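We close this part of the discussion by returning to an individual protein. The encoding preserves chain order, so positions in sequence and tokens coincide. The sequence in question and its structure tokens are set out directly beneath this paragraph:

===
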Amino acid sequence: MSNLRDIKRRIKSVRNTSQITKAMQMVASAKMRRAQELALRGRIYMSALANVLQHLGESLILRAGTPLMEERTDGRDLIIVVNTDKGLCGALNANLLREVLTNAPADACYLCIGNKLAGSLQRLGREVEGSFSLSDSPAEAELKPIFDMIRKGFDERRYARVFVAYQKFVNVMVQRPQIVKLVPVEPQELISVAEQGGMPDAPGIDADFLLEPTPELLLESVLHLYVTSMLVQLVLEGKASEQSARMVAMKSATENAKTLIDSLTLDYNKARQSQITNELLEITTAMKAME
């Protein structure tokens, strides 16, 4: 009898868990659609901006006076790790951490957007300079403190290069960990970076530009716009990957719960049938003994 109560209690517990995972799946699905829309919309903008910057870079023979395009040998590398604040998203953070540990320089310092990997990096002996939490649909204003920190460190030559490690959103089932360079900006790499990010070329953007004022004056302001917009775009890619991975993980958990409930129900029915059979045998034995 106790075995039947235990099985029944387990069935109830698993059913309650499946209701929670189903609700989380529906929430993640709604957030995923919004995150995907923002990420895909930003790719077209970044492609056009990359083409404009390439045109500006090609129009300038000398670029030494532009700090964000200056190659440096002093200072350390900064890795911005775009991870999640919450769990229950499968192996998303683990895959990103593996990519960072495999390809990032050993002496680099780290800045985490999301809290999940900050502790892991510190336990592995990596220097984490800060950790930030953002909303599910972050705007440029939320990233301003991060960009100010990057710009200050780059201007003070504490950082030689700045990279961003993030999960590139491919589709609902596939998220690919990548590390891309944010600064210094390489004019010849602008289009290749756009293509790696899946950003389609904007139509008609390769035509000659009429620039006012001069390209030299425009370059600095457009570079700032490019770097901030690129950081926002990579964060949006990470958010889309997070919600997609969480939806898939919760869907898998719900399906596994249903499978477990079916298995436990079968065990319950077998145990109940066995109990009924034993009771009938006891009754039959008692009746024969009374004859």
Observations:
- Strands lie at 76-82, 109-113, 127-132, 159-169, 175-183.
